[in-house]
Amino acid sequence: MVRLHRALLQMNRALGMFESQSKLWRLASLAQSSGAPVTKWASRDLRDGQAHIWFHCVGIRVSDQLERLLWRSVPHIVVTSATLRSLNSFSRLQEMSGLKEKAGDRFVALDSPFNHVEQGKIIIPQMHYEPVIDNEEQHIAEMAACFREHVESKKHLGMLVLFASGRAMQRFLEHVTDLRLMLLVQGDKPRYRLVELHRKKVESGERSVLVGLQSFAEGLDLKGELLSQVHIHKIAFPPIDSPVVITEGEWLKSLNRYPFEVQSLPSASFNLIQQVGRLIRSHSCWGEVVIYDKRLLTKNYGKRLLNALPVFPIEQPAVPEVIVKSKTKQTRRKRR
């Protein structure tokens, strides 16, 4: 029986692999899907000392598949989420899903039941640096100094720090090594275990800080003191080196459309709405969202991103004094 069970498991794995490969090559044989190009690329990694080549294939639009498999098959469908809109518009959703008002599809935005003005606020520190690659080290140092001040104030038991990249997260951790024991960092343990530990620590009166990437901004439901302060590293635009992002961008340019407006900015709005949405989960929730990106106040698109968020009061405190160490010299930045 044991041998039979093992044989069946091996057959299931083989069938699953065959099905995946069949779908891959079927999609790879197409030049377009849903009227848009299909992204195809290969990647290489090392596992157990051996090189592995992986082939990837992704359609950048799936509206035809949704029309065939879902929209035509079910008479009435209700799609609900806090992040169906970006920039206060359903345009991106319509483009990606194939749903259209002209076809009789209805799009409705309901008011939030929460009193965001009374329950929370957004804090945008007066950072000296924008969070761009050339200033990353200086910006992370400033962010770490601000974060340290919030921790030392002891106003919040449960905190969440969200990063746009793993590289930035690791550099941040290098600046707060003395606080490492209170940090529950993505990758240390499975996410569900980190959240369990966070709950136990806060419920016992101990301070706890979850630290992670965009996946920690999705589906995380911590109410009240379990999460009363959210720290956001920067506006999370799509990664410019992603093959899917590159393919869609080139395709949009060929149609004389502006990728930043159609692709990058709506995606950033989706991400920011999700991140900010971690704070107020019920009528008893309260707290602050700290966003370390002054582009929200200095760039034209920043106002549009803010306008798509719940209506929180906004504060702009000065940043603490920071000493940024580099290979060549030390740069001392004083409080404004």
From TrEMBL:
Domain ATP-dependent helicase C-terminal: 166-298
InterPro entries attached to this UniProt entry: ATP-dep_Helicase_C (IPR006555), DinG/Rad3-like (IPR045028), P-loop_NTPase (IPR027417)
Signal peptide annotation: none
One GO BP annotation of this record: DNA repair
Keyword set includes Protein transport: no
Keywords: ATP-binding, Helicase, Hydrolase, Nucleotide-binding
EC code(s) of this entry: 3.6.4.12
Molecular functions (GO terms): 4 iron, 4 sulfur cluster binding; ATP binding; DNA helicase activity; DNA/RNA helicase activity; hydrolase activity, acting on acid anhydrides, in phosphorus-containing anhydrides; nucleic acid binding
Domain of life: Bacteria
Pfam family, one: Helicase_C_2
Stored PANTHER family: ATP-DEPENDENT DNA HELICASE DING, DNA REPAIR DEAD HELICASE RAD3/XP-D SUBFAMILY MEMBER
The name this protein goes by in its record: Probable ATP-dependent helicase dinG homolog
Gene name tied to this protein: dinG_2
